[in-house]
């Protein structure tokens, strides 16, 4: 019996272990090994930290890196600010069918691929696009307005892409908030603001944190949106990694960049958890 | 003296449905007032209107003499203990109790002092930093009351707060709630579907049915002198016979039941005519049991019957007796003084009760 359960356990665990080792652990070990070697001659490599040194010596790399981090944090905040009232409405105010319909409406954009969705934004924002024409027609602009290829366009794209990943955990946690607790908050003299601050937000913190982690990771690692909506001045760190691997065949530097991005995201997530006093265990449930 | 809480012709409709229909009552300061009724009778609706979560369709609510219809719930001098208490799980006990005081903008030191004071009063000093889920059911109950009482409301509303507790604790909390009410000297309005909670704790009880009050009175009045058939059937247990009235002399009357039994009852001032269809309600504990007919000489109603089942429940034990003349089984309280300790199914017993114990109402109402 015991041997049987043990075998079952191993069999059940196998796909997970394969997934982890083949797709995550082994590639990362290899990436790390690639990142700490330096090409001294054709097919001649030496172990060194030269790639990491290059990153810190070249201002473009460092600045793109920081810019990506700051923009991703900003995108996460904006997503949270927009998603919170939406989620509150879906979870607490909407009832029955409306609730389900609203939730599905949040989901529908994800039926089409990210590429198509991003093209949708390009159609709206480009010089000859819908918004530009609308502004001209309304007399608010006297010539075509270019709204693409800047940071604002990237931000819109990122927030739009991430919205669902914030709404789902928020709706789930807010739904578990007992209506009577909110009513008690009012009954004991609270107004909308104090009920939100002392009752709703503390209750929703696990959802806010887990949603924020997911959105932040997605934004930081996003390649498509910054590439398509951003301009020459709006470089994203993933674009740098891509160009090192694919354009310049410099796998060593690319691997080093990849590793730095991993470190950065881990660091910010850790900081976020510390700041909100949550643990990964509580957040991921 | 102005009553602490007064409702005037309070009505609330949901579409065509009248959840609360023209209810008026006044609760004197410092008393314990209960609204007792089956689920769905509209008692929670009344409570939510008083707390301010629901607008009345018409009528007025006065707290210490002033109408509060335009006052939002967070400004009313009324606090509510919710059915599942609704303690804030994200806060510890101190923060829970201090929540309302913080809203009033009180200083930290004063809040701390008041919290300690109220914890002392509910007999739980020193639990300040405990978490809500570390407390037992009874302790949570007391904290929920303290959280309201620390705000010194004019009226405290309690929405079936004992429903989630187990029986033993519920019995103890009844006594404790009554003691807390006396200690805080605040008006309590308590709603429940559990008659024993209402009977034990209240100064005044309103029995509610289908959106309207059937009777308002003390526990004794409701129990001994129900004014309507619904109250007679709802408060306490009862045996019920329907039939036609054959003779009336003063308060006393004779009723011929559907299966031919003649029974003496009392109208207690209700207008009944000879020939009316009526129902007689007799409580199991108003019926005397004896081994022989001679012990029941003085009673108006006497019969002999066979025990069909014995419902042993300690002090509240009953027997079901089927009358020898036929007809429905009669539920009779079994005294636990020892003489019926050997009573078994199939035994023959004599039962009897005085006519005044048989409350008679015009049939159809209950």
From TrEMBL, chain A:
Transmembrane portions of the chain: 7-29, 69-90, 102-124, 152-171, 204-224, 253-273
Occurrences of domain ABC transmembrane type-1 (ranges): 65-272
CDD domains attached to this UniProt entry: TM_PBP2
Membrane topology per record: Multi-pass membrane protein
Compartments, as annotated in UniProt: Cell membrane
GO BP field: transmembrane transport
Main location: membrane
Keyword Transmembrane helix on entry: yes
Keyword field: Cell membrane, Membrane, Transmembrane, Transmembrane helix, Transport
GO CC terms of this entry: plasma membrane
Presence of keyword Phosphoprotein: no
Similarity field: Belongs to the binding-protein-dependent transport system permease family. CysTW subfamily.
Name of the protein in question: ABC transporter permease
Species per Swiss-Prot/TrEMBL record: Aquicoccus porphyridii
TrEMBL record, chain B:
InterPro entries: AAA+_ATPase, ABC_SmlMolc_Importer, ABC_transporter-like_ATP-bd, ABC_transporter-like_CS, Mo/tungstate-bd_C_term_dom, P-loop_NTPase, Transp-assoc_OB_typ2
Swiss-Prot/TrEMBL keywords: ATP-binding, Nucleotide-binding, Transport
PROSITE patterns tied to this protein: ABC_TRANSPORTER_1, ABC_TRANSPORTER_2
Domain ABC transporter: 5-235
GO cellular component, one term: ATP-binding cassette (ABC) transporter complex
GO biological process: quaternary ammonium group transport
Gene Ontology MF, one: transmembrane transporter activity
Matches recorded under Pfam families: ABC_tran (PF00005), TOBE_2 (PF08402)
Top-rank taxon, per record: Bacteria
Annotated Gene3D superfamilies: 2.40.50.100, P-loop containing nucleotide triphosphate hydrolases
Protein's recorded name: ABC transporter ATP-binding protein
């Amino acid at each position: 019996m015991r041997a049987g359960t043990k075998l079952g356990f191993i069999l059940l665990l196998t796909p997970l272990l394969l997934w982890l080792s083949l797709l995550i652990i082994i590639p990362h070990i290899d990436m790390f090994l690639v990142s700490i070697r330096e090409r001294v001659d054709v097919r001649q490599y030496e172990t060194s930290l030269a790639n990491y040194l290059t990153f810190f010596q070249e201002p473009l790399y460092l600045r793109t890196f920081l810019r990506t981090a700051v923009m991703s944090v900003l995108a996460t905040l904006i997503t949270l600010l927009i998603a919170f009232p939406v989620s509150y409405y879906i979870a607490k105010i909407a009832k029955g069918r409306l609730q389900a319909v609203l939730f599905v409406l949040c989901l529908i954009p994800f039926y089409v691929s990210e590429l198509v969705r991003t093209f949708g934004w390009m159609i709206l924002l480009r010089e000859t696009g819908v918004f530009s024409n609308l502004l001209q027609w309304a007399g608010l602009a006297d010539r075509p307005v270019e709204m693409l290829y800047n940071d604002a366009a990237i931000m819109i794209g990122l927030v739009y892409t991430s919205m669902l990943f914030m709404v789902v955990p928020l709706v789930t946690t807010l739904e578990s908030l007992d209506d009577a607790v909110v009513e008690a908050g009012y009954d004991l003299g609270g107004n909308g603001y104090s009920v939100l601050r002392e009752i709703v937000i503390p209750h929703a913190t696990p959802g806010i944190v887990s949603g924020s982690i997911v959105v932040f990771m997605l934004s930081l690692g996003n390649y498509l949106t910054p590439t398509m909506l951003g301009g020459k001045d709006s470089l994203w760190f993933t674009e740098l990694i891509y160009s090192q691997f694919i354009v310049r065949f410099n796998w060593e530097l690319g691997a080093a960049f990849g590793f730095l991005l991993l470190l950065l995201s881990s660091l910010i997530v850790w900081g976020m958890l510390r700041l909100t006093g949550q643990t990964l265990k509580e957040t991921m449930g | 003296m102005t009553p602490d809480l007064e409702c005037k012709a309070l009505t609330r409709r949901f579409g065509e449905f009248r959840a609360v229909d023209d209810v008026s009552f006044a609760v004197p300061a410092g008393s314990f007032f209960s609204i007792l009724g089956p689920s769905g009778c509209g008692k929670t609706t009344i409570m939510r209107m008083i707390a301010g979560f629901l607008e009345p369709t018409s009528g007025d609510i006065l707290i210490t003499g002033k109408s509060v219809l335009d006052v939002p719930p967070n400004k009313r001098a009324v606090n509510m203990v919710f059915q599942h208490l609704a303690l804030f799980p994200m806060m510890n006990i101190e923060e829970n109790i201090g929540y309302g005081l913080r809203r009033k903008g009180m200083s930290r030191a004063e809040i701390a002092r008041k919290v300690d004071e109220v914890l002392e009063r509910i007999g739980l000093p020193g639990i300040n930093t405990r978490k809500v889920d570390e407390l037992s059911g009874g302790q949570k109950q007391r904290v929920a009351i303290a959280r309201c009482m620390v705000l010194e409301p004019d009226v405290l509303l309690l929405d079936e707060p004992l429903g989630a507790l187990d029986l033993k604790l519920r019995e103890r909390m009844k006594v404790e709630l009554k003691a807390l009410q006396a200690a805080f000297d605040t008006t309590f309005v308590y709603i429940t579907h559990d008659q024993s909670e209402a009977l034990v704790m209240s100064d005044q009880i309103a029995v509610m049915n289908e959106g309207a009050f059937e009777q308002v009175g003390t526990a004794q009045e409701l129990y001994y002198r129900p004014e309507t058939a619904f109250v007679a059937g709802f408060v306490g247990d009862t045996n019920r016979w329907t039939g036609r009235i054959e003779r009336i002399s003063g308060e006393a009357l004779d009723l011929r039941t559907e299966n031919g039994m003649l029974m003496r009852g009392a109208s207690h001032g209700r207008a009944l005519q000879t020939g009316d269809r009526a129902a007689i309600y007799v409580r199991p504990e108003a019926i005397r049991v004896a081994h022989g007919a001679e012990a029941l000489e003085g009673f108006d109603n006497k019969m002999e019957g066979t025990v069909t089942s014995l419902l042993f429940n300690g002090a509240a034990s009953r027997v079901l007796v089927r009358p020898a003349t036929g007809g429905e089984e009669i539920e009779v309280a079994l005294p636990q003084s020892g003489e019926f300790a050997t009573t078994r199914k199939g035994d023959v017993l004599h039962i009897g009760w005085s006519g005044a114990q048989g409350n008679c109402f015009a049939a159809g109402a209950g």
